[in-house]
Amino acid sequence: MKEQSTTKGFAILSMAGMLVKVLSVLYIPILMKIIGEEGYGLYGASYQIYAFIFVLANSGIPVAISKLISELAAVGNYRDAAKAFKIARFILVILGIVMAMFLMVFALPLAKATHYKGVYLSLINLAPAILFTSIASAYRGYFQGRGNMTPTAVSQVIEQILNTIFTLVFAAYLMRYGVEAGCAGGTMGTSLGALASASFLIMCYGKNNKFKAPEGALQVDNVRLTTRELVRKIIIYGLPITLCVGMTYAGNIVDLWNTKIRLMTGGIDETRATILYGYLTKYQQLLNVPISIISSLSMAILPAISAAVAIKNGKKIKDNINYSLRLCFLIAMPCAVGLSVLSGPVFSMLKFGKGSYIMTWGAIVLVLMSIMQIQTTILQSIGKLFTATFYSILGIAIKICVNYYLISIPEINILGAVAGSILGFIIPITLNHRIIKKSLGVKVSLISHAVRPALASAVMGAVVFFVYSSINYISLFIKFQYISNALSTIISILVGMATYAIALVLVGGIDSRDIQSMPVRVTKLMPKFILRKAFLKRKLL
């Protein structure tokens, strides 16, 4: 199996991730048409519970597989790399069975505890997905550890396509039995999509389950690890990651648990409170589109940093960390500005209904989530997860307090959850940054990585606002308002992308490494002054 570079792996995963998230956003207006605003609130609530249990079962061990395989392969211990995967796969299957049974048995108590009794049937339907995703996650960790991101990317696309189709079909069919049944039908697509994804990955593994070692590598006298030592490494790597990622997702559970009850405390009736929670879910779904690119970057850099740590290559560790943080800002900042400026038009174009004001004020969360995700990946690679987990817990505690106070204020209501997220991310990010600098002794500056993307994004935001307002005003003669808005929004996005690229070059935010990592077809379309400036900057550095 051919190993891919970090850049190529990131490109493959990001393209697949974007496609998956775009599909997950595009079917929302159709689903809302089927189950209604209140139904979508219930649907979102069921998915938050499922997502939390999902990360507890699937977040740690797959990353441990990727990290362990990349480390062992880096030092030439291919036999133990293969053995480690088989052990971890067995653990994941058992864990998937246990967590799936837990969700099925405790579906009703969980629904009552979160104040959404109507999600009981949805949780039962989501239980099989926990097992299927656990199986799929094991193989994804294997391929990522081998440096081949293609099977993971293809499996994600297959999963989302089938999820989209079956979600809409079963939701429409079961709505005749009521909103709760319709929501439950909408969750059936998740289990069927996960089953198809796992099946595809098993097939890929059957064709690529051999390590192609360099000539003479198997004769190298490596110290073999016992089964007990490998299990211990999997637990040591996987447990802190599970806790850390679990704490990140716990923020959504906090929103689920106390948002509705605090809204009602502020004088909002239960139906309206459920609808407002649905607004928050739509906001989170849109944030997940650009976040998928950052997640792809995280998955691509983890094996690279882990391998560099294993062979004690300090320069490579520093380069990968700075490169990942730089890409994080280059991607997250323009997305956040664009979503904030065009929140209303985007919601209208996607037929999301109401709630765009949450995105206007809360797009900054996208940048904070991205930074923390990259920091978590770095800390995973260097074995500093327990401290980071403690800081995540501290962030969750702050979020709970902010949510509790602000959401019950009628003038703020659901925006209190956004404010809680902002403060809940800022604290861990600050503390994580200190750990990374202290542990590695490398120069890592968040501000220096952020300045140029921030300037280019500000220019882009101003241009996008002007272009949208101008085109929308001119196109008012079009009879259908939806077409006018969609046309203005799409053109504004395209102009914004071009503006950001040009502004980024002018402020020195792109160098030759970025150009060389792009496909040749893309670089041929770029103006020559951009290429000249990028390569000149690299030479000066």
TrEMBL record:
Topology within the bilayer: Multi-pass membrane protein
Record-linked PANTHER family: LIPID II FLIPPASE MURJ (PTHR30250:SF21), PST FAMILY PREDICTED COLANIC ACID TRANSPORTER (PTHR30250)
Subcellular location: Cell membrane
Keyword entries, A-Z: Cell membrane, Membrane, Transmembrane, Transmembrane helix
Superkingdom of the organism of origin: Bacteria
Parts of the chain that traverse the membrane: 12-35, 47-69, 90-108, 120-139, 160-179, 185-205, 234-254, 289-311, 323-343, 355-374, 386-406, 412-433, 454-474, 486-508
Cellular compartments per GO CC: plasma membrane
InterPro entries (alphabetical): PG_synth_SpoVB (IPR024923), Poly_Biosynth_Transport (IPR050833), Polysacc_synth (IPR002797)
This protein's name: Predicted stage V sporulation protein B
